[in-house]
Amino acid sequence: MRGPSGLVQRFLRATIHFFSYHLVMRRRSSWRTKVAGLQFVVRPTVFHPGYFISSERFANFIDRLDLRGKRVLDVGTGSGILAIAAARSGAPTVIATDINPNAALSVPENAQTNGVRAQVQPVCMDLLSGFAAGPEFDVIFANLPKHNKQPRDLADRGWHSGPKHRDIAPFFAQAYERLRLGGCLYVMLSSHSDLDVIESLISLAGFQWKIIQRYPIFIESFVLYECRR
Ligand SMILES: C[S@@+](CC[C@H](N)C(=O)[O-])C[C@H]1O[C@@H](n2cnc3c(N)ncnc32)[C@H](O)[C@@H]1O
After folding, report:
1. Three-class SS of residue 58?
2. CA of 168 to the centre of ligand 1 (A)
3. 139 CA distance to ligand 1 middle (Å)
4. What CATH number did the domain enclosing 193 receive?
5. Does residue 82 contact residue 139 with C-beta atoms inside 8 Å?
6. Which of 26, 45, 63, 179: disulfide with 183, CB 3.0–4.6 Å?
7. How many domains does the chain have?
8. pLDDT the model gives residue 5
9. 204: number of Cβ within 10 Å
10. What is the pLDDT of residues 53-85, one digit of tens each?
């Protein structure tokens, strides 16, 4: 783990997680929000793109890409924010996947509200396990669960990916197999992730990679990797 550490940061992170989990992630009703110029209904258990800042940072990055003619995959789509941003950037086809069935239900309604329903297709699955291996995509986006503790439940899977990021470990090899030659995976983690584990998984999968953005916030930095096949 890199970046700020020590008792104060651990305490702050635990406090933020406690309140986020009990007040936001475990909410019982759908909430409405507007992020990156897009409108969302966020169903219970779905990662909230307004309260959790990484979503907007990543969507703003996608806004600057030209995705015309690209076949795009958004893994761990949540409300669908990155898939919808990709469609807004011109992608004619975006597959949006999540392990949370409430996310898969949210994506079509949010895509409809934002005028890109024809481009965005939701799928509920664990990582890319439901796709046959084969070079199908030009670009993959993934704003993954960044913290390496056991998730408490489905809602907490937006935040935690298990000890040593166990729950997302197979993703990098799966993504490599499904990208066309020259295709690119953009994946966001945090200075509080175990980046040594993540970087070795990216390298082992076969990617040429670099960090292209760091987005500092109060207690951590989000880290955006560009991984080329
Ligand atoms: C940090 S949230 C990001 C959500 C959304 N992409 C955004 O930027 O707001 C991570 C998402 O990954 C999903 N997720 C966690 N583990 C997963 C898995 N094994 N397979 C698919 N999705 C997963 C969570 O349900 C959550 O929606």
Report:
1. helix
2. 10
3. 17
4. 3.40.50.150
5. no
6. 179
7. 1
8. 57
9. 12
10. 999 999 999 999 999 999 999 999 999 999 999
Answer whether residue 3 shows pLDDT above 50: no
Q: What is the reported pTM?
A: 0.95
Tally of CB atoms within 10 A around 121: 15
Q: How far is CA 212 from CA 79, 90, 113, 187, in A?
A: 25, 22, 31, 10
List ligand 1's pocket residues with C-beta within 6 A: 47, 49, 55, 58, 76-79, 81-82, 97-100, 103, 126-127, 143-145, 157-158, 167
Q: How high is the pLDDT of residue 7?
A: 81
Q: Is residue 56 part of a domain?
A: yes
Write the single-letter amino acid at 105.
L
- In which band, very low, low, confident or very high, does the pLDDT at 8 lie, cut at 50, 70 and 90? confident
Q: Is residue 60 part of a domain?
A: yes
The answer on pLDDT for 197 being more than 60 is yes
Map residue 196 onto helix, strand or coil.
Answer: helix
Q: How far apart are CA 115 and CA 109, in angstroms?
A: 10
Distance from C-alpha of 39 to C-alpha of 146, rounded to nearest angstrom: 24
60 vs 26: CA distance, rounded Å = 27
**CA 188 to ligand 1: nearest atom:** 1
- Summarised one tens digit per residue, pLDDT across range 99-155 is 999 999 999 999 999 999 999 999 999 999 999 989 899 999 999 999 999 999 999
Residue 1 domain flag: no
Q: Residue 99 belongs to what domain range?
A: 7-228
| Contacts for 11 with CB less than 8 Å, ≥ 6 apart | none
Question: Among 94, 143, 172, which is best to mutate for testing ligand 1, by the most ligand atoms less than 8 A from CB?
Answer: 143
Q: Give, using CA atoms, the residue closest to atom 11 of ligand 1.
A: 76
